[in-house]
Amino acid sequence: MSLRVLVCNDLPIVLDGLRSLIEAEPDMLVIGTTNSGMEAIMMARAQRPDVVVTGLDLQGINGTEMIRRLLREPGETPPRVVALAMNDDDETLVSLLHLGVNGVLVRGATGQELSAAVRSAAKGQTTLAPQIATRLVDWYRRDSRGRSEALRIPTEEITARERQVLTLLAHGHSTEEVAEQLSIGVTTVRTHLYRLRCKLDVRDRVQLVSLAYRAGLIQSA
């Protein structure tokens, strides 16, 4: 049985290239391609691919939001996802990993790396680009060194609303989505995040989410 793969990317030349690379593998079949986030969700519902290979810059809704909706679809088991992150900034990587993707490849990935990631994803395994794996090891080492300090953070000063905002952020929601989920304004969400960074003495959202997990403020999805 061939692995059924849905391919998503906003650039036609990249979309065609990905399709050619995957179809060159004897154990894989591309069941469809699209440049639209919403169409990707509809195609996944109708055709039930084993793996979705997607970029993050899609038309309509972006790739991160498409992945979030796809992996939370009710009913049957959702497909595995391999994400192609052209901008591998820390916030993007944290969001993808917390969403539960089974692979993250970055600019410069080879066709062999792509096919290996698809096969691993189909088995429920996770494949990360070497650069990302190295950064995760570095994060872990820094976190381990700072674990004792993390345990002394003033968790009693964190309000219930701030925990809600932090949890939604850690689970991949944007500022606008957090505001919609909690029925509050975007400015209010940003105020909560600013206060959290001040209370926990961190510079950005990536550090905020990392510290919150270590301190037990939030749990993995």
Automatic annotation (TrEMBL):
Residues 151-216 form the HTH luxR-type domain. CDD domains: LuxR_C_like, REC_NarL-like. InterPro entries: CheY-like_superfamily, NreC/VraR/RcsB-like_REC, Sig_transdc_resp-reg_C-effctor, Sig_transdc_resp-reg_receiver, Tscrpt_reg_LuxR_C, WalR-like. Keywords: DNA-binding, Phosphoprotein. Residues 4-122 form the Response regulatory domain. The keyword DNA-binding applies. PROSITE patterns: HTH_LUXR_1 (PS00622), HTH_LUXR_2 (PS50043), RESPONSE_REGULATORY (PS50110). It comes from the Bacteria. This is Response regulator transcription factor.
